[in-house]
Amino acid sequence: MKAFFIERYGKQNGRIGEVPDPQVGAHDVLVRVHAASVNPLDSKIRTGAFKLILPYGLPLILGNDLAGVVVRTGAAVRHFKAGDEVYARPPEARIGTFAELIAVDEHALALKPANLGMTEAASMPLAALTAWQALVETAQLQKHQKVLIHAGSGGVGSLAIQLAKHLGAFVATTTSTANVEWVKGLGADVVIDYTQEDFTDAVSDFDVVLNSLGADVLAKSVKVLKPGGQLISLSGPPTAQFAREQGLPWVVRQVMRLLSSGIRRKVRNHGVRYAFLFMRANGTQLRNVTSLVERGVLKPVIDRCFPFQSTAQALQYVEQGRARGKVVVTMEEVIQHAR
């Protein structure tokens, strides 16, 4: 089968080539990929930024989101059958959605929302699960609480705004001048143009901050939280607790403890909490997302689509950090050629 893979770490690495078809275990579902979205995570994996957290072997097929059709199932699979239209964020140890085929553990898989096409569906799993695990699972966000979502025009931010409003929260977000009105349309109550105003001057006494930006924004976010509030970061630094939960070696746990010592000390001094979130595959939660999509609560936001042959360009576009919503790689030409 054709796939986009890397043979070594580096920013410009990766190529399309022939690789063996995936092996299908007893609990696996073999899916023909119709579309796969591109995430900042893919770029970080490609450069080796996550080698300590995700020690992949090389060569490695990239890709962390998919929508497609079930080809066949393993002997122990009971909830999916050939012909089902599905979507997923595969388990982190078995990524590889930039490919014609992928074997996905059935517990990470869900039926595609009936009201979405393949391209739209492929844009949802990782970003929607991240928003769910941050706001519902970690923050346990309640009605009338206040949440600041940084980078509201991004893939995660655009869905997190929609989910937070559904939960009844008061939502503030940061974005650039060009996206202010667009982000307001997603439902944000307060939109801060970071090119014109410092968010610490605009909001205060918030219950939750969801950060996906750099260390400077993370540190400043502590200031806008009320006592007992929670700072959740998608961009790090990871903690020793996270390393333990991942089963990482003792040495790596100590590195994580050191890397996070500054922000942990800062939140303690301010009487708030800090959590690093590295989202995980979860088919049950994805079915909850499906329900919200089919009810019109969550709507996909797609910036651009690239053909599979232009996967490298899609990665480069995402790395610029200016995408409004998600970027998707489509496999239509590959599928037609295979037929």
Automatic annotation (TrEMBL):
GO molecular function (one): oxidoreductase activity
Matches recorded under InterPro entries: ADH-like_N, ER, GroES-like_sf, NAD(P)-bd_dom_sf, YIM1/Zinc_Alcohol_DH_Fams
Sequence ranges assigned to domain Enoyl reductase (ER) in this UniProt record: 10-329
Domain of life per record: Bacteria
Any Pfam family hit: ADH_zinc_N_2
Protein name, as recorded: Putative reticulon-4-interacting protein 1
Taxonomic source organism: Pseudomonas reidholzensis
Gene designation per UniProt: rtn4ip1
